[in-house]
Write a structure and sequence with these properties.
Elements lengths: L2 H17 L4 H20 L6 E6 L2 H17 L4 E6 L2 H7 L7 E4 L5 H11 L3 E5 L5 H10 L3 E6 L13 H7 L4 E4 L2 H8 L6 E3 L3 H11 L5 H7 L3 E8 L1 H12 L4 E7 L4 H10 L4 E3 L13 E3 L6 H4 L5 E4 L11 H4 L5 E3 L7 H8 L3 E3 L3 H10 L3 H17 L3 H6 L7
Parallel strand pairs: 1-2, 1-4, 2-3, 4-5, 5-6, 6-7, 8-9, 8-12, 9-11, 10-11, 12-13, 13-14
Length: 409
Amino acid sequence: MNPLYNFAISAYRTAVRIASVRNDKAKRMLQGHAGTFGILKNNIGEKDDCIWIHASSLGEFEQGRPIIEAIKSRNPGQKILLTFFSPSGYDVRKDYPLADTVCYLPFDLPRNVEKFLDMAHPRMAIFIKYEFWGNYLNALNNRGIPAYIISAIFRPTQPFFKPYGKMFRRMLGFYKHLFVQDETSRELLAGIGVTNVSVTGDTRFDRVIKICDEAAEIPFAEAFSAGHRTLIAGSSWPHDEEIFIEYFNSHPGMKLIIAPHEINDGHLEYITSLLKRPWVRYSEREGKNPADYDCLIIDCFGLLSSIYRYGQTAYIGGGFGAGIHNVPEAAVYGIPVIFGPNYKKFKEAHDLLENKGAYTISDASGFNAVMQLLDNEEKRKASGEAAGKYIRRNAGATERIIEMLPIIK
């Protein structure tokens, strides 16, 4: 790749190393990277034939998961190598049972790339949504290993479509096929000469529908919310929490379930410092009566996707930071969804806003106005129904993609 690209990746690696001195997430990433080649050596033999699937973080994994399940369903003996870039994905899914090997993806530098591919020697590579690693894609192409990207979405603001974007456009040429979410993406790619593209939709819809249909019962949460108007706040950050907790504190007729994005003592203590009504942590629920509490804090992973079933409205965090989290995960339950202003990169958010199944806010007064609107039972139900129908009618991406992938030799 371009020397400037390699310099940028090296600079990013250095920044992570510096940050790791004080940042636990960066520290975990570096520790995970240090173990990657050992994991590959111990788990992938010279004659093993694997399909490599890369997801940057947990959200991308949820998009790739239906593809993994479909591959294993059709070809149970097929080995899967699953890689992550972020600790938020690896820490939660390092023991994912359908993946034969799970590890971090080393930084995209030539030496790392060659060593990784020598040890993994996949027969194909599948990247999820936004993964454009130039050296990996170039090396796969040089080795004749087909690379695909699924659930991808493109916008005019991306560097591929800018006058200075030649290096980035070259990356797209290394994919054997691109499976995109919408017609706009296909048209943008066609405009720069990329035509090996199919509009197949977003696999996340298939995933959230399956979760909804198989949602686990959570007795304490069910008893906690029974008979009360309950707001479920998922993947929340401090700015989000300031807004909806302030509203919750002054509205005794509602209950609140919070599943924060970051689960650590500092963040949990911050949440409880804002609360002025009785609260309980899920991990400390044993022997306690859910009726005695107004706020339930989910301080463990793996429950949020099922807990949405107990709410009448959902708030999705991240909209005051890098971007909103998993909106379909809540909308599939047929409840209105609220999120902050940074949703521009998310097609499903735009669609849900247009369909009146979602609402965006920029401050506390906006949140209060939406909650007041949704106090009207008829409007709330109509909005929730619109959200649920939108998710269901966009199902089927997994099947469309899997039919075009050569997953069985």
